[in-house]
TrEMBL record:
This is Tetratricopeptide repeat protein. Gene3D superfamilies: Tetratricopeptide repeat domain. InterPro entries: TPR-like_helical_dom_sf (IPR011990), TPR_rpt (IPR019734). It comes from candidate division KSB3 bacterium. Pfam families: TPR_8 (PF13181).
Amino acid sequence: MAKKSSFLDVVKGITQKKGKGGKGKKDKEVEKYEKILQTAPDDRNALNALGDLYAKRGESEKACQYYLQVGALYAKDGFTLKSIAVYKKAQRAKPDLITTYLELADLYVQKGLIGEAKTNYMKAAEMQAASGAKHESLDTYRKIADLDPTNIKIRSKLAAMYENEDFIEDAAGIYVDIGTVIAQQTPEDAKPYFQRARTLQPENEHILSRIGYTYAEVDLTQD
């Protein structure tokens, strides 16, 4: 005599059938969009759809491959808002992907959304530092500083950070940037920053020529 199936067995069987059917349907959709890409590799709709399909599957790496492609294409086309929307989907799919924060920040700058840009740059810089990419992290902090070039306090802190990590040429360049800004208003107050840059890079012709140009521009005398 055949054993009666329990209610749980029946439910399990139905669920498994649905799961197989759903996977098959998704595979067919993937194949459909991949076929489109064979003849039109830059098809935005197909790339975006594939990103969505893989994101729903939980395959975040693959999803982001497609999202990053279509995001870059939209940005290239000048469709900044569409590009932002796609990069945000990539960010949700894989929150630890540094690239998405940097790309989003750059796009937010283009749209004048400085607060959003700073937030994404900051997150990227923190993630870069945590991964051991110190120079990349400082370069990202520099992008934040560049959003407010007259903020001497932020730029001075950034120069000190480069110096502490032994990225001396970068530090000297920022000290020159600071001195150049200050020299436009109070030339004498710019001297300590120029002197610090010269101390760090006494033979760097680019640094020295920048300092010399500013001295001549504001009629500042050398010590």
